[in-house]
Structures are given as structure tokens and as C-alpha cells.
Amino acid sequence: MPEPRTFLIAEDEAMIAMLLEDFLDLLGHKVAHIVASLSDGLDAIASGGFDAAILDVNLAQDKCWPLADALEAAGIPYIFATGGGDIIPPLHAGAPTLAKPYTTASLEAALERLG
Question: How far is it, in rounded angstroms, from Cα 5 to Cα 52?
Fold first, then answer.
């Protein structure tokens, strides 16, 4: 099992964000921030207080790539959460993905790939 981490969750659907928070808690992790938009996500990244992130690829009308860019620049690992069919930019192709619908087991597998 990976070491406990503190996460940023970027997810625009509140119920899914709460589900992820519950799953992370069950797996021994904590959540520092839950955001639903790029601007809130960038603010959370700037304020820090977490050491990994889960990014919904589609945040409302936007793609999460600016958040991934900021996390990459800060050296913070991240997981992409996707409903499928999303093409990950080459810069971020090495990041683990978590396919919807989520399960505790699929989240745990993604966390292990997070490193």
C-alpha cells in the first residue's frame, strides 16, 4: 500500500468528488482541497498543502491540462480521472488514469501507479 498522501481533487460533480474523498479516506489518505474549476484549481495549487492530485479531465467546459501543467512544474504527481475517450497530451502521457465509474480497487491501483 502506498504511503499516506494528502490530495487535491479537481472534480466538477460534487457527488463524484465526495465519493473520491470517501475512497481516499478508506485507503488511508486525506484531502486538502476539492475544486470544481480551473481557476479554483490553480489557486489551490498556488496555496499548496497537498502532495498529489486527482484531476477530472473535463472540468465543466474546460480540460484540466493547465492544472496538470502547474502540477508538473511543481513536481507534484497527479492522476487523470476520465470517462474514456480523452486524448492525454504527450507531456502528461505518463500520468496514471482512473476510469469512471470509480471503485476503491481501481483507485488503489491508480495510486500504486502514482509512485
Answer: 7
Whole-structure pTM value: 0.95
Residue carrying C-alpha cell 513536481: 75
Q: Which three cell numbers stand for residue 68?
A: 496538470
What is the chain's alpha carbon radius of gyration, rounded to the nearest angstrom? 12
Residue whose C-alpha is closest to residue 79's, from 4, 7, 2, 3: 7
CA–CA distance, 8 with 76 (Å, rounded to integer):
10
How far CA 67 is from CA of 16, 26, 44, 103, in Å, comes to 19, 26, 10, 24
Tell me: the pLDDT tens digits for 43-52? 999 999 999 9
Contact 79/55 with Cβ under 8 angstroms? yes
| DSSP β-ladder status, 62-63 and 78-82 | unpaired
